[in-house]
Model the fold of this input.
Amino acid sequence: MFKRFISYYGPEKGLFIADTVCALTYAGIDLAFPIILRALTGGLFTEGAAAIMDGLLFLGLGLVGLYIVRTACIYFVSAQGHIMGARMESRMREDLFDQYERFSFAYFDAHNSGDMMSRVVNDLFDICEGAHHLPEWIIICGIKIIGALAILFTISPELAGALTLVTVVFVALMVRQNLHMRSVFADNRAKISEVNSQLQDSLAGMRVVKSFANEETERAKFRVANDRYLDSKVAQYKVMGSYQATSAVMTAMHYITIVLFGGYLVAQGQMTAVDMATFALYISLFTGPIETLVNSTEMFQKAIAGFRRMDEVLATAPDVQDKPGARALEVTEGAIEYRDVCFSYEQGEAAEAGAEVHPVIDHMNLSIKPGETIALVGPSGGGKSTTCALLPRFYDIASGSITIDGQDVRDVTQHSLRSAIGLVQQDVYLFDGTLRDNIAYGRPGATNAEIEDAARKANIHDFIASLPEGYDTVVGERGSRLSGGQKQRVAIARVFLKDPAILILDEATSALDNESEEAVQESLERLAADRTTIIIAHRLSTIKNADEIATVERGRVVERGTHEELLARGGTYARYYRMQFEGARARDVR
Ligand code: ADP
Done:
């Protein structure tokens, strides 16, 4: 984890070195200041008036020069240091986002989007505050402490020794408190992430919340998460408070030691009064940086808590990956073959963690001829959607093989595989942009003419043209300004533009009313022509149009044939058909 953290400094080497040099110079100047004062009080002021004036002029010019350099250094450390931190933060954010994009569906099934947002937004800020402040503080404070100690020891080893002892005792105490602080900050991160998750969930589901008039329930759930975060914050501030208090007691003990033990040494003639005054000056140079260092551990702990959460994501190997040297899929005809495929959602990480494994796809065999339209039917939960999700490798199978034109889907690049497959689902996701952008999502860079052509084929062009802003109409978040049927047709236009060789229609029309279904159905048929198509259908009309029907039950294909063949066989499909579709047909006829 540490190595990964350090690697983010790599591209900032130049800035980091310049920042370090400025921090060193600034610390050196601060350290020189009391020496100059000591020379003034102890040496220069004992000379005659003319010598003092000469000395003062020289000293004054020197001081102005030093302060100009010091100011420039402070500006550089503050501005450029923060800029360096911001750049590191930006790179970390990109890396985290890239990593999220590499994960398969299994990761998103298991992780909450509010938590993921929290890692990208909240945690990184803490990391980067630490990334640029910590090194500069360690340098500035380290030098000040070592320099001050060296000078203090030359003035009075006894008093310097006593002060060091006091410091060691208190620092040891604070290190102990620090360990506690780490767990408090980790808890804090987890709790803010819960707030984000709850917020995300409630806001995304606000339409459902309102339709059930469940605002009060949501508010209560949100309050629970919010109160937990508050409790965690309270615990955090208590720990921080006692930490600061310990640090304040240490400073007080330093001054008390100087006054009492220093006074004793002066009385004993082991130290002069000027030396004791110099000590009082230097001690702030000593205690100030110690306090800063001690306080910086708080920042350090926050940064560690944040980085740990980021590292957890970066260190997770995506479970679906391109093989080294994977080649692009070449679709020649579009033949699909599932051979003895087994799959369960609990395989891999979840199974290792001891989860019980329920096979969802159980030794499935299914071959689909080029250009054929095959309908998957069967009881809900039988594994139809899962069968479809395995083809574009949204999940990897446990055993067996899935091939497209003889190429195993695990041997080709995910990009080429998914470019060859078009997917229309019941739940359409539109991005909050214009209709044009949403259709063009199917093929970024498509021309307006191509977009319109796709919209025509999807039976949505006339509707779009009738809108005052036409293709520039903004659809709202998740396409909230469109009806279900319109959204579905935009999704179909997208796939027309993508022009894939293989098509998966996962209950694409099951949520639509009869009228919308008709318009969508027509465009779907146009889309499916000449493409190998798998349809998961709940509607009789869709199934009847398929070349073949496969009944999927408990993760296997139990029957296969045309509608008439399967009815004549009187097996599972016939039973299922009577149960499921005769009622539907009665409704359709009505
Ligand atoms: P169908 O499409 O035939 O209704 P599915 O393929 O959706 O069936 O589901 C098959 C089984 O897998 C069901 O028992 C379902 O609960 C389970 N399942 C589906 N998706 C997931 C998932 N993302 N994580 C865990 N289990 C799942």
Remarks:
- The longest helix spans residues 49-102.
- The first strand starts at residue 336 and ends at 343.
- The chain has a mean pLDDT of 85.
- The two ends are 66 Å apart (CA to CA).
